[in-house]
Amino acid sequence: MAQLEPPTAQRGYQILSSRDLDAQTLEVAMGPHHPSTHGVFRMDVVLDGETVTKLKPVFGYLHRNHEKIAENTSWIGSMPYTDRLDYFCSLTSNWAYALSVEKLCGITVPERAEYLRVILAELTRLANHACLAGFFVNDLGAMGTPLLYALREREKILDLFEWISGARMMCNFMRFGGCRNDAPEGWLAATRKLVAHFPSFLDEYDRLLTGNEIILARTQGIGILSSALAIDSAMSGPCLRASGVNYDIRKVDAYGIYNRFNFRVPLGDHGDCYDRMMLRLLEMRESLSILEQALKEIPEGSVQNSAVKIRNFKPPKGECYGRIETPKGELGFFLISDGGTSPYRYRIRPPSFINLTVLEDMCLGQKLADAVTILGSIDIVLGEVDR
Amino acid sequence: MNIARLLKQFPGVRSEDGASLVLPRELALQVAECLKNDPEFKLDYCSNVTGVDYPDRIEKSKAADGSETSKKIPGFLETVYHLYSIENKQGPLAIRVRTADRTNTRVPSLTPIWRAAELQEREAYDLFGIHYIGHPDLRRILMWDDFEDHPMRKDYQEPDDYHYEPTPHDEVLEKARKHYGAA
Of A50, A159, A166, A299, which one's alpha carbon is 20 to 30 angstroms from that of A357? Predict the structure, then answer.
């Protein structure tokens, strides 16, 4: 019987002293298949123990060069592609593109269409923020239940989208100079009903989550983003406002008819993950207030400017940059027209992508598990990040 | 925004369409810094950064005697920044920096001034091939690292190296024929 020998370095074992262990850093590729990266996104993280010392985001797994495709198709032809940018919020992506083309050509939009757009955009915001809150606590380890509560509410909103546009997620509903069709009979009444019931969900969610001890411990003081850095890195949307910067494009640009509505812009105080989550809950209440006003005031009439040609649509030569406040932040379209039937340059300013600029700054010195929290609180969609 | 004052302060800066500024490469950083810090502009929010490709053009002109002359106008790449001011609630102002031509594509990076440009300049480098001098981490971002061309350029040709379908037809058959030879 062979005699058992203790392991030695010669036999392939390396005996480490505790000092050697201290000096080791570990490089972890989080993603592209990690569930908490919300899609095919990778963070290359260097860890010292559990502390993040370096973090590099890696993009491009979902890249299909949307901009090139759009430059090779007709102007209206890329409207369905904008659905696939932020596939949670197809209607706001539609609106951003339609708004930019309208700005480029000087097209006016009928009243009723403007109201419909606002109603649909705010419903999108409700669906997105409810889901964000659900996925966020899912990332924190509250598996399933709160997320399903949120998805239950989102279902109701998606049913409304299906009713009006024929599709739950890829709505493809806005057109240059209006909307594709009017709201079907009974749709507005159903929306009113949903708006009336939604606050009870928010109250339920508030009771369930906002005072929860684990959520407080996991989010407060985590991933702090100063307002100066938030502005410098062009953070937009709820992440910017959670850092205390009062900048909501619905107020600043007052695009569409947003200047007619009375709503407040919630602001954060600390710029941590807790503020970013709470801000979304507060924004949902403001969205409900906008919805109530819009549903009360919506006039009768046409929803499409009949002077706009769909076939052989040619904007005049020129360029424009149009932007709106989507649930994720500032979605902009920079369009250059050479007078032809397809855009000369079609650039999307994706909020999810640009919000990741300072991901490393927010994660440095935090634990790896907090990096998941921070990424979840930024709210990204990879369809938009990679385009 | 008093652009006229800026044009006076920095001779060399032009405003072609009255709305956007074209900055010469060597002045770009200086002007950008002024735009960000000057109390009148305070353009602290660099919203959008992108590239635009203007390929070489051939302009034909007919002389009086009927003979045609063609002149080649060299193209260039342009990088466009859209700036807003959160403090002064104004914008957008577009600033443009142009490369010398389509092979010498060096422009100064404005990432040291607006951090927001970091990922977006990487994207313009990746898709257009604009080289931002002074960028802290200029790597490809959406395409993979050993990809060679710049797909957003107007004259981009997709590479003829993908695997063809087992039973090619129509355009794919054409391409496969070209790729494998007539056999």
Answer: A50
Q: Which of A233, A241, A165, A7 is nearest to B44 (CA)?
A: A233
Q: Could you read off the pLDDT tens digit of each residue along chain B, which spans 183 residues?
A: 777 787 888 887 888 776 788 888 888 888 888 888 888 888 889 999 999 998 888 887 777 777 788 888 888 899 999 999 988 888 788 899 999 888 888 999 999 999 999 999 999 999 999 999 988 888 889 988 888 888 998 888 877 666 666 777 788 778 777 777 765
- End-to-end CA distance of chain A, in Å? 65
The alpha carbon of residue A119 is apart from the nearest alpha carbon of chain B, in Å, by 26
Is residue A172 left, alpha or beta, with left meaning phi > 0 and alpha meaning psi from -120 to 50? left
Domains of chain B: 3-148 (3.30.460.80)
Q: Of B86, B142, B152, which has the smallest distance from its Cβ to A60's Cβ?
A: B142
**How far are the Cα atoms of A112, A163, A251, B176 from residue A257, in angstroms, in the given order?**
11, 24, 10, 54
The domains located in chain A, with CATH, are 17-56 (no CATH), 57-386 (1.10.645.10)
CA A349 to chain B, closest CA, distance in angstroms equals 6
DSSP run (H or E) holding A53: strand A51-58
Best of A71, A231, A251 to disrupt the B interface (most B CBs within 10 Å) is A231
Q: What is the pLDDT of residues A66-116, one digit of tens each?
A: 999 999 999 999 999 999 988 888 999 999 999 999 999 889 999 999 999
Pull the structure tokens for residue A169. 């997620």
Taking an 8 Å Cβ-Cβ cutoff, which residues of chain A contact chain B?
59-60, 63, 65, 67-68, 229, 231-234, 236, 245, 247, 252, 321, 323, 330, 332, 334, 336, 345, 347, 349, 353-354, 356-358, 386-387
- Computed on alpha carbons and rounded to an integer, the radius of gyration of chain B in Å comes to 21
Which residue in B46, B82, B86 is closest to A321 by CB distance? B82
Residue B106 Cα, gap to closest chain A Cα (Å): 21
